[in-house]
Amino acid sequence: MQPMTKKSVQNDYLHTILGYLSRYRMLALPGLAVMALIALGQLAGPYILKQIIDVAVPKEDTGLLLAYAFAFLGIVSVTGLLSYVGMMLLARLGLSIVTLIKQDLFSHLLKLPISFFDKHPVGELMSRTETDTERVRDMFSNLGANLIVNVLTMIGIFGVTFALVPRLALIMAGVSVLLLTVLIVFFSKIFSMYEKARSFYAAIVAKVTEFIQGIEVLKAYGRTGWAETELDAAAKQRVSLEVRISLIEYTMMSVLESLIGPLFIVALLLLYAPKVLTGTMTLGMVLLFVEYGARLLRPIAEIAESLRSLQQARTSLSRIRKLMAIAEEPNRGVGKAPSLDREIRFDHVWFAYEGDEWVLRDLSFVIPKGSFAAIVGASGSGKSTIISLLCGFAHPQKGHILIDGVPLDEIDIVAWRKHIGLVLQESFLFPVSVLENTRLYHEEISEAKVREAISVVHVDGAIEALPEGLATNLWERGANLSSGERQLVSFARALAANPKLILLDEATSNVDMTTEKRIKESMDVLRKGRTMIVVAHRLSSVLSADRIFFLSGGRLIAQGTHESLYQNLPAYRLLVDQQFPAKKRARA
Ligand code: ADP
Ligand code: MG
């Protein structure tokens, strides 16, 4: 990506905002018109009072007086009504825009590579997107509205004053510019404090998410107290900062409202009251200016504050845009449907997650279609990484993975994944029905197919026993099933999808003996007519593999059947003997 200049960032920002506004112009334009009318109403009120005092009262014209009074009443109530309408319009504008952004953001997140999620904790991601999008919403609903009304009111006050007493308008403008500058400088000074408070908040949300995800561990080890202390400390840190910010802010506002405001009015009176006595200015006029002067301060303070919030919203928007700019998972082979008619071949594959810390080193092997391959090796030897590469979650830096001779990178990865049935060590179940967990909302997989899959993996008994059978909603992470049953449902999921390639990554590592037996039986059904790659630490499930690949430190040390490896590879023999001491005795 090219480095952006400050100017282009600014243009970009405006461009984004205008883009959203034009998309919702049916809300934005009427909203703007209403804001202009509200500003007009705010100017008109004091002017009517002036007319009453300067025109109606001296003339002793009761009719005119009443007419002005009704006009005043009318304007006040119409302005009130308009504020309501304007608020509604802009609230909808903000909501529509933020919904759009959130949808875009979520659909973008879904397209990001798996490596992105390795590096971004879910809590941080959620709080970041949530606060950032909410700020953008605020920009379109409140901030924008306030800023527009305030700026228009200010311009109006200057305009009317200028038409009546030009010199005063200039004085007012001078004072306003001065105040505005002071306030803007002030707000930009505490801007970094706001940002810090925000990052404290994100950290708290991230912590809470992690603690809740790990609640069992915390409880089991009696460490909930520690979690509480951690959160407490983080919360206190945030509160003290927020308090400091509020204190500074309120002090500034009070100085403005209770000192500078009255001073300004007193100055006005000193300047113009004598003129009333000498008859060079009407009483109504002086009251009008006092009223305008008082009404000027609030917009100034609010404009400065809005500018600060706009700056925040802008930071948020740029963060959102940065997230949106992260490259989606590439799919270079769109439209190129995969075939798996012959083989999967690793051809001198090198892979590193980070720099040149090679996790897979010069891997070459072939898995013929329809065969049962097993990958064994110590923990950390790179077995799961091979599975990741096969799913296209990561890409080799050197060498190729070839499917029937075609590099995986050149195949439509989405279509390829449809051919894969993946079962991991930790099954992930969604809080929806067993039926949908099994078919993952694939309508083309019929309920009958799901039932069949469920019964092939022998979990039908457990599912029938649930209150609503297949329709029973699972709890979060499938908590209302035992871990073995959860794993069997994952197998049913793989079976129901009717994939060509089955990938099992330590799928039997966490289960009890009964479940393991069931899984082994279902594996026999599952592999019929399919290619199956099983990663296992426990060797029992791979003894019958057509070919076992023995991995060590990311290198392929040996390959062969169980028997040949047992004969020829001491490291393998050691592993087998550790796991099956009885066999060792039998063989000896
Ligand atoms: P295995 O499945 O054989 O236990 P893995 O393939 O999971 O091994 O891991 C191989 C090596 O790669 C390990 O050293 C591990 O720390 C590292 N690794 C695994 N996943 C990641 C990741 N997402 N980011 C960085 N390093 C990783
Ligand atoms: Mg692993």
Brief account:
By secondary structure, the protein is an alpha/beta fold. It contains 19 helices and 10 strands.
How would you describe this structure to a colleague?
The chain is an alpha/beta fold and 588 residues long. The protein folds into two domains: 6-324, ABC transporter type 1, transmembrane domain (ABC transporter transmembrane region fold, Up-down Bundle); 342-419 and 534-588, P-loop containing nucleotide triphosphate hydrolases (Rossmann fold, 3-Layer(aba) Sandwich). The chain is built from 19 helices and ten strands. The protein has helices spanning 6-23, 25-59, 62-111, 114-119, 122-164, 166-213, 215-220, 224-278, 283-325, 383-391, 413-418, 434-439, 447-456, 460-464, 483-496, 513-526, 562-568, 570-579, 581-587, and strands spanning 343-352, 358-368, 372-377, 398-403, 406-407, 420-423, 501-505, 531-535, 547-552, 555-560. A hairpin with a 2-residue loop joins strand 9 (547-552) and strand 10 (555-560). Helix 5 packs antiparallel against helix 6 (166-213), helix 6 runs parallel beside helix 9 (283-325) and helix 18 (570-579) crosses helix 19 (581-587). The mean pLDDT is 88. Bound molecules: adenosine-5'-diphosphate (ADP) and magnesium ion (MG). The site of adenosine-5'-diphosphate (ADP) has 12 residues, from helix 10. Adenosine-5'-diphosphate is lined by residues 118, 353-354, 359, 377, 379-385.
